[in-house]
Prior knowledge:
The mean pLDDT is 94. By secondary structure, the protein is mostly helical.
Amino acid sequence: xxxxxxxxxxxxxxxxxxxxxxxxxxxxxxxxxxxxxxxxxxxxxxxxxxxxxxxxxxxxxxxxxxxxxxxxxxxxxxxxxxxxxxxxxxxxxxxxxxxxxxxxxxxxxxxxxxxxxxxxxxxxxxxxxxxxxxxxxxxxxxxxxxxxxxxxxxxxxxxxxxxxxxxxxxxxxxxxxxxxxxxxxxxxxxxxxxxxxxxxxxxxxxxxxxxxxxxxxxxxxxxxxxxxxxxxxx
Length: 234
Ligand SMILES: [Zn+2]
């Protein structure tokens, strides 16, 4: 099958281009840059979370301040009521004392909640400033690495484009269906083709059934190794 031989020769160039592309992608500089970018993303996320928390706390603080003002006003109302209309007997005095105690205890609890929230909000401010500074530093680091990577990989990328172009040139004339099978197999295993050697797939060294051997010999069908899935070629 002439087309299979063409595909085989295409594969040699395709694999060379892929190997170079992988080495570009796996360069330590690129990986460092990717890590810096991921860290930057994490920091942005942390900053957004703190901003959300800060907004929630601001709402809570407002609600507490309202409650506090209401309790203070109620206390003032009780005081002026007592000044105008002092309790007439022990029972009324007891009732006023109970009312005042309840209001004072509410006031204290609001005040203590407010102090806690103000303290935590101050910590948020510190932490968010820290995160912002860290994010700016990480972003700079990422951009420097990206630049270094681009400079270092420029030559390799040009070489890659040449290899890819030479692979593309070899693809001319290969039937589309065959190329489609090749690309599907390549997603599963690479290299996607294997020579038949001593009736075995040279990709995985599995002996092939005689039916498959006959088909490969006839050269009429695309035969894939039953074990590794590679396209087999004589
Ligand atoms: Zn195989």
